[in-house]
Design brief:
Elements: E1 8-11, E2 16-19, E3 31-34, E4 44-47, E5 50-51, E6 60-64, E7 68-71, E8 73-74, E9 84-88, E10 94-97, E11 100-101, E12 110-113, E13 118-121, E14 123-126, E15 133-136, E16 146-149, E17 152-155, E18 162-165, E19 170-173, E20 175-178, E21 185-188, E22 196-199, E23 202-205, E24 212-216, E25 220-226, E26 235-239, E27 243-252, E28 257-261, E29 266-275, E30 280-282, E31 288-292
Parallel strand pairs: 1-3, 2-4, 3-6, 4-7, 5-8, 6-9, 7-10, 9-12, 10-13, 11-14, 12-15, 13-16, 14-17, 15-18, 16-19, 17-20, 18-21, 19-22, 20-23, 21-24, 22-25, 23-25, 24-26, 25-27, 26-28, 27-29, 28-30, 29-31
Amino acid sequence: NDNSSIGLSITSLGAISLSSVTANSNTGDGAVIHNDSALTAQPVKLSGTNAFRGNGGVGLEVHTLGAITISNLSASGNTGGDGASLISYQAGAITLTGYNLFSDNSGYGLHAYGIGAIAVNSVTANGNGADGIYLQNNASAAADSVKITGTNVVQANVGTGLFLVSAGAVSAANLSALNNGVAGAYLDTSTGTGGVTFTGTNRFSGNGTLGLDLRSEGLVSLTQVTADDNGTRGLSLAGAPASVTITCGSVTHNGTFGIYTDSGGVLKLIGVVASGNLSADLNPSESSWIITRACP
């Protein structure tokens, strides 16, 4: 802590395993970890509780060919870049467990780029200078998945709350994406056939442009969705999904359309209230609309 440059710098050709790292209030980056020059993929693991706060650069930066596994990561208030930037250049998975906080950074809250699967749990990313959470693994030939579990909040970020690009299946639970400068959430799986599933309670309200901007070629299922009071559309559905099912929700008082789709597929609305949207509650499209009024 309180160093005049980088708090912690590690370069290795082997596996890296650390526990309960604290790197706060350094004038440079909090911690920079490299083992991406290894001859074979080697993992990076941070166990315990790990804090990278108030640094003049990036909070935590990891570059590897292997898997990245981190528990209970807090990377907030870093003024020179992202809270955490996690990059795996080969097929290693990126996994965050426990509770993870990325707020008030000048760049992204969490930036994770990989070729393998990505799984994050209970992420809060508020008040960042770019997107709150940025996840990308669409270069994976295996179309690896992205999973967001636990309870997740992305609020008041300058960019989009959650920005996600993948060729695989995406599942998310209990996401609140509120009052972000651009969209609440942008999800694009259209380079593959992976579907998108939201479970639990999900809110996309008060954002500068769209509440949820979703592009997919797979099956889409959204449960308990609120997308109210966004600058343009509440829910925007693009691509060519086989079907879209939205079960129980509210899509009201958005600046243009409540629900907008140009997918041409089957759209099922079950217990969804759409009213008070400026252009129209549902846009005319080539989609086949199946509407059931009662929420099961």
